[in-house]
Amino acid sequence: MYELADWGQPVAPDWEHPRERLDARLPADLIRVLRRMARADGVSVSVLVHRLLSDAIGLQENADLAEPVRSAFD
Could you tell me the residue range of the domain that residue 36 belongs to? Predict the structure, then answer.
């Protein structure tokens, strides 16, 4: 009666834009620390997280983001 659809393997979308949405669940204590750090710097939590992640992976501010950043996980 019902047949299972074969959707094949998931395929990552083509890299079209330098920005993608990222929603992450973080522990409440980590969020509190991030908020304090962001307030101390006078920026939003999003900007702070962007800076921290960029520094952690060695991404330069003026880097060409037309191509995805390669990491040790690729």
Answer: 28-57
